[in-house]
Amino acid sequence: MLLRIFKKDDFAFGYRQFLVYSAMKQSQKGQFYGQTNTTILLEGLTLTDTEYTLDTVDWHYHQNPYITFLLYGNLIEGNKKEIYNCTPGSMVFHNWQEPHYNIKPPGYARGFHIEFEQKWADRLEYDLQDIQGTMNVTNPGLKLILYAIFKETKIDDPVSELSINSLLLNVLNGIHETQVVASKKIPSWVTKITELLHDECTEKHSLTDLSDAIGIHPGHLSRDFNKYFQTGLGEYIRNLKVEKSLHLLVDTKNSLADITFQCGFADQSHFNRCFKARFNTSPSVYRKILRG
Questions:
Q1: What b/e readout covers 205-218, taking b as 16+ CB neighbours within 10 angstroms?
Q2: Cβ(62)–Cβ(74) under 8 Å?
Q3: 133 has pLDDT over 50
Q4: What does the alpha-carbon distance between residue 189 and residue 72 come to, in Å, rounded to a whole number?
Q5: Radius of gyration, alpha carbons of the chain
Q6: φ, ψ for residue 263 (rounded to 5)?
Q7: Does position 47 have pLDDT exceeding 60, yes or no?
Q8: Tell me, what DSSP letter sits at residue 81?
């Protein structure tokens, strides 16, 4: 057995950490800081629509793993490793044991939360331990699924619970796949193409332009993109555009024509087709749902 020699300072630090964690508040199921507009209780799931009303929330942790999805405004969230500057569409997965704090900049902010109990995971034979720690989810396809789940909470018909469970499993599997990929050595072109597409999703790109910009062969980019992004290159770009449109639908009074232009769609008909393919409804109808 390896014997560790402790120093006096080690005990002092450990005791301070004990005091910090002992004093840290645990949020119970369905409890989020602010004004909760709606709470939906399903079998092992709690879904809340919450307005953030407090300027700061001190270090705390939650009873169960959950997802935060920002619908309006801005929010700063910090944990032991990172600080996230969340804007509309930001999505963060939290494992239950991860302490964090929040700061709300001036202005209105609203979030959608999905909290998972172990009995939900057991019933659907999903191992929540597959996802570790806290993760800032940037994949636009997974974010669009969260918007679809939020839409289901507003429809609230006999099929909604089935749909929510199915969509959530897709989200969790996607998060797990992202963590598996991230645990391996990622080629530099993956980081380059991610930054390029997120910064310039409204621009018109060709395969050769993109491959030249990141320094790999067009065939290599086409073949390996799906391996790292869980979807094809063209679909990823369309998802980024639709995601951007959702931010604008929620957070601005821009007309649909203005949003079409700002998001880089060819015309409003093209915008409608791409949007309906993902949500089975028009942007104008979905805007009313998001603002409801």
A1: beeeebbeebebee
A2: no
A3: yes
A4: 32
A5: 21
A6: -95, 0
A7: yes
A8: S
What's the confidence (pLDDT) of residue 147? 92
**Contact residues for 263 (Cβ-Cβ < 8 A; gap 6+):** 201, 202, 241, 242, 244, 245, 248, 271
Strand 35-42 and strand 91-94: pairing? unpaired
pLDDT in tens, 215-225: 999 999 999 99
Using one digit for the tens of pLDDT, what is the confidence trace for 103-128? Answer: 999 999 999 999 999 999 999 999 88
Please enumerate, as own/partner, the contacts of 159-166 that have beta carbons within 8 Å and a separation of 24 or more. Answer: 161/42, 161/43, 164/42, 164/45, 164/47, 165/42, 165/45, 165/124
Give me the count of residues in the chain.
Answer: 292
pLDDT over threshold 50, residue 193 = yes
Residue 45 pairs with which residues in a beta bridge? 42, 116
